[in-house]
Design a protein that fits this description.
One of its GO terms (molecular function) is citrate synthase activity. The chain is mainly α. Helix content is 55%, strand content 2%. The longest helix has 23 residues.
Length: 366
């Protein structure tokens, strides 16, 4: 048998949700460069129901999601306690996701309500960590606007809401990535939605997956605060055999299409904030990594700066990734459930063989 590390190149199933074939990302047939211009709610509808909504459907769908962006009282009470613990926010989200599956008649929760509660819970964790009061939804705003409002405490401008909508769309799904595959494995057992999402959150937490965006900003902060020459920093890190986060992708050898769009958003956002220095650092680092290793930035690279410009702490970056990716996780959970097949791969045993156990008298107590 041929072993493929990390299942690289192995086709494990079919999907109608998204594809990265030929290093070209599509959502249900739409190129990411085009569908990223849609509204967030349109893309959620598309990934779940495999077609774009009519205008009347979109209005009703958006309002339904917004109306459901409310947490049960018992969830809020527990969040006020666990979110203040000195744990990484992704650990808090892991516990919170599991908690959401134990309150308020969750047996009948469906994807719209689950997505709405996840967004609200993530915003609540951020507010509680910042010692700020929780925000209520504004029924006149859309999902993205309300998510930003509940995170930052301020009603976003239309320009910011549009940019952040694009960011959320770009992170919504990405074929059988590690966390999505984890969710599908759980879903194949026919466990509940919240169990599947909890498993996905655990997978996303790792620095080689969702946690990379946090590491990217740590790098920028270190270089800026310590006034280190960025090229010397990179050379020292590489000499110490440390990975430079935010570069390279198993699929996109010629550049991540999402990163190209995110770079434009980051460039626009820094014009109205005091973060131009970070953006210039990113350009220098990206130029060096391409010139020396032919490596392009991936989706995590510019996302880190975008989240910082919005006013978020770097420890919460991966939670925002989780908020966006919940859309895709739910789409894949639904698809896997319909398939009705347990995911149970085989392995190649390479341990010792031919051993025998002979129990000797006196080796145990009577």
């Amino acid at each position: 048998m041929v072993k493929n590390h990390g299942l690289a190149g192995i086709v494990v199933d079919e999907t109608k949700i998204s594809s990265t074939k030929n290093a070209h990302l599509i959502y249900v047939g739409y190129p990411i460069e085009e569908i990223a211009q849609a509204s967030f709610e349109e893309v959620v509808f598309l990934l779940w129901y495999k077609h774009l909504p009519k205008q009347t459907e979109l209005v009703a769908f958006r309002q339904d999601l917004v109306n459901k962006m409310v947490l049960p009282a018992e969830t809020i009470r527990l969040l006020l306690y666990i979110a203040k613990e000195p744990q990484h926010p992704m650990s808090i989200l892991r516990t919170t996701t599991s908690l959401l599956g134990t309150t308020n008649d969750v047996e009948h929760d469906e994807p719209p309500k689950i997505l709405a509660k996840m967004l609200t819970a993530i915003a609540a964790i951020i507010r509680i960590r910042d010692n700020e009061p929780l925000m209520e939804i504004d029924p006149d705003l859309g999902v993205v606007e309300n998510f930003l409002l509940m995170m930052t405490g301020k009603k976003p401008s239309k320009r910011l809401a549009k940019m952040f909508s694009t960011v959320m769309i770009l992170h919504a799904d990405h074929e059988f990535n590690a966390s999505t595959f984890t969710a599908r494995v759980a879903a194949s057992t026919l466990t509940d939605y919240y169990s599947c999402l909890t498993a996905a959150v655990c997978a996303l937490k790792g620095p080689l997956h969702g946690g990379a965006n946090e590491r990217v900003f740590e790098m920028l902060e270190t270089i800026q605060q310590q006034q280190i020459d960025p090229l010397k920093y990179l050379q020292d890190q590489l000499k110490a055999k440390r990975k430079i986060m935010g570069f390279g992708h198993r699929i996109y050898k010629d550049g991540d299409p999402r990163a190209r769009i995110l770079k434009q958003i980051a460039a626009e956002l820094v014009q109205t904030t005091d973060n131009q220095v970070y953006y210039q650092l990113q350009i220098k680092i990206a130029d060096y990594m391409f010139a020396r290793f032919n490596l392009h930035p991936n989706v995590d690279y510019y996302t880190a700066l975008i989240y910082h410009c919005i006013g978020l702490e770097k420890e919460t970056f991966t939670m925002i990734f989780a908020a966006c990716r919940t859309v895709g996780w739910l789409a894949h959970i639904m698809e896997q459930r319909q398939e009705g097949s347990l995911i149970r791969p085989s392995s190649v045993y390479i341990g010792p063989t031919g051993r025998h156990y002979l129990r000797r008298v006196g080796d145990h107590n009577e």
